[in-house]
Design brief:
By secondary structure, this protein is of the alpha+beta class. The protein is 18% helix and 25% strand. The termini are far apart.
Length: 151
């Protein structure tokens, strides 16, 4: 997949014009985890990589050169007998269709449907969050309290 390459979670993987991978700040696992999405310059081809089990313990981390290491997070003190982690790798045409098919495959694996997402008020209506990271977290408009700021 030569060309522009991206990844979720504000981490970057890209391929230079010589086809060399550059991995910077690209650890993907645990609470900061998500899928790795690689795509060509036109978006006509994409590759999706993510954990398919043990999501909070799974990790994808760049190692020397153009390789990724996958498995349990590096600071794991011990691994219980019988524990496992699996990953899914999917290559397809387009970005959105590939991500949708990836999600459908994981839902099928775990017997889930989209009903919960479609019926969740936070997913079906525009909202505003005032927790850590939101614009007004510990910041109000001048001479206003939180209630007045958000009215």
């Amino acid at each position: 997949l030569a060309g522009r390459v991206g990844q979720f979670q504000d981490k970057r993987i890209y391929i230079d014009p010589n086809g060399q991978y550059h991995l910077a700040n690209a650890t993907v696992g645990g609470q900061q985890g998500g899928l790795v999405l690689l795509f060509d310059a036109t978006g006509s081809k994409s590759l999706v990589l993510s954990a398919a089990s043990s999501f909070m313990a799974a990790n994808v981390h760049p190692v020397a050169g153009d390789r990724l290491a996958m498995g349990a997070m590096g600071r794991t003190g011990s691994i219980p007998a019988g524990w496992s982690v699996t990953f899914v790798l999917r290559y397809a045409s387009g970005i959105r269709p590939n991500i949708q098919a990836w999600g459908a495959a994981l839902r099928a694996r775990y017997g889930r449907t989209e009903d919960a997402r479609r019926g969740d008020l936070t997913n079906t209506h525009l909202g505003y969050s005032t927790d850590n990271g939101a614009f007004y977290y510990y910041e109000t408009e001048k001479k206003k309290n939180y209630h007045e700021t958000l009215q």
